Recover the amino acids of this structure.
């Protein structure tokens, strides 16, 4: 296989570990804290997780654990969308297993969770692993979005594990994938299957986090990749001086990516979905705010700018949220009836008859292209696929209409021309930054230590990550601790609660304190490409979000 010079060099990179994980694996001991409970709906969650609910937070310290030297077989699953660093989670897990016992084996389930059910797997060897260290993507074993939630699936999973002598399964995924891992772990324990389940926190959206999970892996790399592109566009905008660039960024349920990119680039406008919801801002109010910024910049001779828009924005706008919620329920409950309608005109008539009056009004107020996008096939969880909704075009078209109105009244005399971008796939499989390479390797290595401690239903936790890696803290937290009950496919189900942007936290406050200046002035920053070699202050820095959350100045 032909390799690029960067590939060759990245293969040689040795990821950094927390000090405790540098010890011999048999000298690492679990220290248990107090019992835990779920973040909400405690009684309902406890009833569903009878054997794994309430287990304590775990921290690792120097001590003794001779079981770490036992020969074991472990299975690993990549679940959901790609995120930079996934290969290093597997590399850390692999190296941890081999550090325990060289006869131990790691099996990768192919194509995501379905590989576990269908017994589609391969043994990961030195030769295979060494081809993927410090590289982007999930192509070592592939990923998938199969939901593991039925007893028949779990029974087949037990069969697969028994056939391969597997006594532990590591699920690398986001909140839904780790919810599935928790359900599977509960089932295995109830069945006394002798198979532990450990999760690892993955999602570039950054919405799988809490005080113990400080960052989901891939967020660092993705935001730095997007910020490079935004910086390039800002340089172009400031050169051509004739376009407003509306950039939609990944982040369905939370605006962490948009906020981090705003902090890195100082774009003129960044909409934070959580603020829109908190202030009950209408679609018209958002458009008016953008138009006001465009007009102020134009009055200074600057008919250009950059606006960042989280892909999930439309679900946070009150009237749109109500509309989408009813659409999701309607299309789940009456899927067959709706599917028989052949044309869009018929679909609109059906919706007028079935939607609440206020939701029908909101639907008809939208451009037809957006209406059609709201009716596209739902994702596996029954939700509208917001990445397919061209919110950036919706906003720019409505801003243009507003500016045309302002021209007639003499409140706007400039020019407005829009360009549109959606940064999604560009950031999902990049070479991981040094931070993600180190963090992911630590998560995987730590997952083995959790297995060796005899634990199940836990997620790998590496803390204190805004500091140098030798100060990182390793441990694990119960998956049930992060759960609440939510409506899915019209039913209440246990899910890991998504972490949204907190409006009273340091990252948003820093943004809010500067956004008026960034809006009217041209204060662009140009982060440039991710650097892998050079001084630590250039190559090993965490995100601005993480530093601000941990009280460190930029």
């Amino acid at each position: 296989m032909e390799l690029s010079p960067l590939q060759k060099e990245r293969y040689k990179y040795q990821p950094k570990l927390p000090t405790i994980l540098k010890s011999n694996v048999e000298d690492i001991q679990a220290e248990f804290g107090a019992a835990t409970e779920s973040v909400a709906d405690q009684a309902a969650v406890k009833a569903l997780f009878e054997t794994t609910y309430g287990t304590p937070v775990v921290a690792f310290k120097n001590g003794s654990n001779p079981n770490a030297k036992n020969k074991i077989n472990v299975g690993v699953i990549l679940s959901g969308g790609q995120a930079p660093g996934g290969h290093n989670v597997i590399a850390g897990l692999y190296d941890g297993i081999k550090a325990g016992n060289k006869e131990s084996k790691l099996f990768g389930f192919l194509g995501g969770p379905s590989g576990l059910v269908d017994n589609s797997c391969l043994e990961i060897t030195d030769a295979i692993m060494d081809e993927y260290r410090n590289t982007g993507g999930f192509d070592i074993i592939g990923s998938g979005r199969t939901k593991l939630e039925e007893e028949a699936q779990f029974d087949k999973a037990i069969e697969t594990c028994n056939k391969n002598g597997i006594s532990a399964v590591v699920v690398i995924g986001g909140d839904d994938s780790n919810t599935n891992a928790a359900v599977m772990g509960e089932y295995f324990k109830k069945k006394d299957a002798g198979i532990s389940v450990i999760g690892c926190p993955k999602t570039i959206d950054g919405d799988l986090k809490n005080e113990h999970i400080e960052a989901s892996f891939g967020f660092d790399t993705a935001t730095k990749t997007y910020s490079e592109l935004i910086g390039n566009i800002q340089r172009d905008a400031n050169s051509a001086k004739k376009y407003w660039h509306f950039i939609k960024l990944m982040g369905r349920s939370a605006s962490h990516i948009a906020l981090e990119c705003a902090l890195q680039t100082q774009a003129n406008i960044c909409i934070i979905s959580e603020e829109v919801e908190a202030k009950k801002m209408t679609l018209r109010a958002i458009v008016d705010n953008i138009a006001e910024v465009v007009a102020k910049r134009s009055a200074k001779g600057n008919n250009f700018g950059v606006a960042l828009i989280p892909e999930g924005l439309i679900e946070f706008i009150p009237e749109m949220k109500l509309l989408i919620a009813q659409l999701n329920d309607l299309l789940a409950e009456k899927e067959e009836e709706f599917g028989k309608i052949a044309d869009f005109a018929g679909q609109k008539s059906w919706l007028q008859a079935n939607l609440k009056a206020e939701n029908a009004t909101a639907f008809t107020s939208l451009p037809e292209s957006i209406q059609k996008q709201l009716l596209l096939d739902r994702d596996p969880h029954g939700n509208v696929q917001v990445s397919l909704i061209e919110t950036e075009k919706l906003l720019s078209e409505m801003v243009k209409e507003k500016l045309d109105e302002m021209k007639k009244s003499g409140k706007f005399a400039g020019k407005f021309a829009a360009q549109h971008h959606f940064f999604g796939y560009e950031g999902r499989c990049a070479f991981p930054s040094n931070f993600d390479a180190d963090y992911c390797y630590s998560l995987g290595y730590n997952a083995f230590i959790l297995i060796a401690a005899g634990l199940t239903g836990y997620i790998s936790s590496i803390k204190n990550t805004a500091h140098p890696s030798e100060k990182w803290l390793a441990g694990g937290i119960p998956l049930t601790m992060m759960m609440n009950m939510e409506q899915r496919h019209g039913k209440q189900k246990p899910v890991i609660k998504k972490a949204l942007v907190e409006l009273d936290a340091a990252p948003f406050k820093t943004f809010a304190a500067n956004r008026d200046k960034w809006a009217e002035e041209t204060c662009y920053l140009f982060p440039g490409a991710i650097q892998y070699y050079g001084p630590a202050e250039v190559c090993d820095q965490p995100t601005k979000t993480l530093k601000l959350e941990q009280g460190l100045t930029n």
About this structure: The first strand starts at residue 28 and ends at 32. The domain at 20-218+432-488 is CATH 3.40.50.450 (Rossmann fold). The chain has 21 helices and 15 strands. The chain has a mean pLDDT of 95.
